[in-house]
Structures are given as structure tokens and as C-alpha cells.
Write a structure and sequence with these properties.
Spore Coat Polysaccharide Biosynthesis Protein SpsA, Chain A; eight-stranded mixed beta sheet; two-stranded antiparallel sheet; 10 strands; globular
Length: 193
């Protein structure tokens, strides 16, 4: 089931810990992490899929959303996606979450409650707010945080109706931040789960 929602790939980070742009890292032999993330969202939602990216990226496409302001983190990217969507929900995935399947978003959507504003997958002690469903109703709250220079996702989540939903596969929430994470993922998956 494809959700009536838009999607957003978060690829605007500086990849400091990785030492190179994570978006360009290979996924399998024929694509990149950013294209894979886009493919996942295109399979999960019926609407538009955008990529939040740094201003410095070459060859932007019409579906790219360049960071309007540098160094405001994923919260700024999510806000930009929420300002563009006409749907109630925005499916978000960070470019460095290569194991997220399209079915994750259906799982989250089916568990939603009327008051929920963010639907976040978790398994054990690991939660992943950057592979989640975000409500358009948060647009103004995020804008206020950004204006107040409050850029931490968790600070916002602690204030709004956040619903944590257990998923059946812990590897769905894998996050690649360092060269060690990347190498371990490649060795255990062959570069493609």
C-alpha cells in the first residue's frame, strides 16, 4: 500500500564523521545511497519525493530542496519538506539509513492515533526519528524552534505528541555515521541488504 503522502530524503548533512558525502556512497553496484533512499520513498508514498540537500551539491534536480540556511540540521530539512507538502503526513528518511524498507511507512501509518504528530520506529533501545512520518501540523512549531535557534530534533519530540512504534526488524534502523559503520554494513550486507 502506498501512502497518500509526500516523501523527503534528508541528505543535507556535512558528513563530517564519515569524511565524505554519504549521499554519494554506493548502494550495491549501480546506485548511490541518495538514489536508494529516493527509491524507497517512491515505493512507499503516492506523492512527490524531494531531497533536502546542501547548497554545494552539483547538478540539482527540480525535486531537490537546497538548504536555505546552513548548519540547522535535519529539523530544517524536515520543516522545508512540511512547507511543501499538501498532505497530512511527510515520510522522511535520512540518506544514511540504508536498510529502511518501504513497508516501514505503512507500519507506522497503521499505528497512528488521531493526536499523533510524529510516528517513530524503534526496536529495543534504538529509535530513528529520521526514518519516520511527520505531521504537517508541526510546520509552525518547527519554524518557531528554528527561529529560536533550537535545532535539536529530540527537544522538539519531547514537546509534541510523539508515538514510538516497535518494528519487527532491528536492522531497519541501522544508521551509517562513520567509516567503521560503513565498512561493517558493507561486510555484513555486501553493500545491499
Amino acid at each position: 500500500m502506498r501512502l497518500t503522502a509526500d516523501g523527503l530524503v534528508l541528505a543535507g548533512g556535512r558528513s563530517r564523521r564519515m569524511g565524505q558525502n554519504k549521499a554519494d556512497l554506493p548502494y550495491g553496484s549501480s546506485t548511490s545511497l541518495v538514489q536508494h533512499a529516493r527509491d524507497v520513498l517512491e515505493a512507499a508514498v503516492s506523492g512527490m519525493v524531494w531531497v533536502s540537500r546542501p547548497l554545494t551539491w552539483n547538478d540539482p534536480t527540480e525535486n531537490d530542496i537546497p538548504d536555505a540556511v546552513a548548519a540547522q540540521g535535519p529539523l530544517h530539512g524536515i520543516w522545508q519538506g512540511l512547507t511543501r507538502t499538501h498532505h497530512e503526513w511527510l515520510a522522511v528518511v535520512a540518506v544514511d539509513c540504508p536498510n529502511v524498507p518501504p513497508e516501514l511507512y505503512e507500519t507506522l501509518y497503521r499505528a497512528r492515533r488521531a493526536t499523533d504528530r510524529v510516528l517513530i520506529p524503534y526496536y529495543g533501545a534504538v529509535a530513528q526519528p529520521l526514518a519516520a512520518l511527520w505531521s504537517k501540523a508541526l510546520t509552525d512549531a518547527i519554524a518557531k524552534d528554528l527561529q529560536a535557534e533550537q535545532f535539536k530534533v529530540q527537544t522538539l519530540l519531547d514537546r509534541v505528541a510523539t508515538h514510538y512504534i516497535k518494528v519487527r526488524q532491528p536492522d531497519w534502523l541501522v544508521n551509517l555515521n562513520t567509516p567503521g559503520d560503513w565498512e561493517n554494513w558493507r561486510q555484513t550486507t555486501g553493500g545491499r541488504p
